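sry for the spam today, last one i promise. struct tokens for design, 163 residues
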């Protein structure tokens, strides 16, 4: 009798483990990957897939280019619209000859406000050397967001999250 009870408990434990493992696998499937490509002074996908062919050897080059053309390019592009949920932003430095980063944040996020650091969504990181791809994971709620690269001095691209 004890052997049967032990077998029964082991089977239940194994089933629970399998169910838990399956739910973890499904949770990973619920993450959507958004691919973004940085070239000098821009994200290609954010500008309707158009690579403007800008050249840059340093951040100051992009500051000049985007001061002159950034607002117009963003106004002519379609903002990315997503549903609330978990995302991985997979960002590639295609051919910028210096290290880049990525910053996605709520539209009204202020990095200098300590309350925003605790209460608002912001994900960022650097280390995107030429040819490098990095993932930035975030869970987005309904609202308005911006994304950019402060090191490549791209424009602030809009992202809408709504059901």
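last one done:
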């Amino acid at each position: 009798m004890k052997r049967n009870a032990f077998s029964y408990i082991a089977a239940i434990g194994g089933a629970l483990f399998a169910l838990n493992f399956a739910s973890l696998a499904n949770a990973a499937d619920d993450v959507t990957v958004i691919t973004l490509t940085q070239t000098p002074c821009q994200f290609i996908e954010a500008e309707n897939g158009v690579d403007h062919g800008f050249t840059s050897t340093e951040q100051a080059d992009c500051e000049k280019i985007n001061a002159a053309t950034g607002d117009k390019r963003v106004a002519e592009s379609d903002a990315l619209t997503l549903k609330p949920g978990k995302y991985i932003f997979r960002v590639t430095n295609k051919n910028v000859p210096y290290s880049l980063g990525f910053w996605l944040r709520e539209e009204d996020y202020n990095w200098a406000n300590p309350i925003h650091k605790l209460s608002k969504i912001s994900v960022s990181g650097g280390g995107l050397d030429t040819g490098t791809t990095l993932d930035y994971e975030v869970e987005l709620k309904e609202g308005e967001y911006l994304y950019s690269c402060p090191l490549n001095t791209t424009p602030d691209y809009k992202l809408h999250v709504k059901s």
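The chain is about 30% helix and 35% strand. ok im logging off now
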